[in-house]
Design goal:
- By secondary structure, the protein is mainly beta.
- The protein has a single domain, classed as Alpha-Beta Complex (Nucleoside Triphosphate Pyrophosphohydrolase), CATH 3.90.79.
- The protein is globular and about 45 Å long.
- The N and C termini lie far apart (31 Å).
- The mean pLDDT is 89.
Length: 153
């Protein structure tokens, strides 16, 4: 009996303030990624991002337009993943339009950090396609509907 393979559908949020981007950090392995999580069956991806932010931080968030969609296929040493990420503009976290200096984490394995955009090249950000998009200025001048793929052609 074979292992069932599936595509992971992930909704992520981009929140930029004062030249820095909010990232979720894997504490054990010290890599970063845009906050968010898996989309559940029959759930809108923007609603999944709202739900994940509430579950992970305890804070409500306002979600803006879709900025980017990426696709990756990779092996993390334990299993092979096929991942599709939708990246939405996050308009607000918490009750204030001013972003909090510290974003709380309810989960033990992650924390939230602000990373200076200028420090992104030296920061372990995953997936690589999102990191490259952020470094190229995609975060400051987003093209709605942009598609990036990590599949080799």
């Amino acid at each position: 009996m074979g292992t069932k393979k599936s595509i992971e559908f992930i909704a992520r949020g981009l929140y930029i303030d004062s030249g820095r981007v909010l990232m979720c950090r894997n504490i054990k392995h010290n890599y970063c990624y845009l906050p968010g999580g898996h989309v559940e069956f029959a759930e809108r991806s923007s609603d999944a991002l709202k739900r994940e932010m509430l579950e992970e931080t305890g804070l409500r968030s306002e979600i803006g337009p879709l900025l980017l969609t990426t696709e990756q296929y990779f092996n993390d040493g334990k299993k092979t993943h096929h991942e599709i990420n939708t990246v939405f503009h996050m308009e607000q976290i918490g009750s204030s339009k001013t972003p909090p200096d510290t974003v709380p984490s309810i989960e033990d394995k992650i924390d939230f950090v602000w990373v200076d955009l200028a420090q992104l090249p030296e920061t372990d950000v995953r997936p690589n396609e999102i990191k490259a998009w952020l470094i190229s200025g995609g975060a400051t001048e987003p093209a709605q509907g942009q598609w990036l793929s990590g599949f080799e052609t």
